[in-house]
Amino acid sequence: MTTSTASNWVSAHIAATGYRTQIMTRGHVLVADEPGDVGGADTGPTPYDLLLSALGACTSMTMRLYAQRKGIPLEGIRVRLRHSKIHAVDCAECAERNAKMDHVERTIELFGDLTPEQRTRLLEIADKCPVHRTLSSTIQVSSRLA
Predict the structure, then answer these.
(1) Contact, 41 vs 17, CB < 8 A?
(2) Which of 1, 72, 93, 112 is buried deepest, with most CB atoms within 10 A?
(3) Residues of the chain with pLDDT under 70
(4) Helices (H), strands (E): how many in the chain?
């Protein structure tokens, strides 16, 4: 099923069986699914893969924009991300020690003839990308039936 969406909406549609989900945004079509070992058909990235993809894309775009504005000779960026659940006992800032919390590991590889200071500054800039800020803040999701 293909439907149009307003420019500020993302639409996700799933059929009566399986987990394959068609996602539409601004005329672009994506597919998400679950791996076979959890009942999906593995026809696309998982929802967490898509979430990490958004963070990786935003991180690299933000760093690229900063480097261009500052004349930093950044030739390329590779952002690798991994999501896991860790016990809150491993987290010094966590209130509940028996709970689990989400953890995103992000490794950033910078290409180009960069000074140590430029590398350090670009790493600082990575934490300023809008998706990172959103994921690090308190998020309110409001749901209603159409």
Answers:
(1) no
(2) 72
(3) 1-7, 88-98
(4) 3, 5
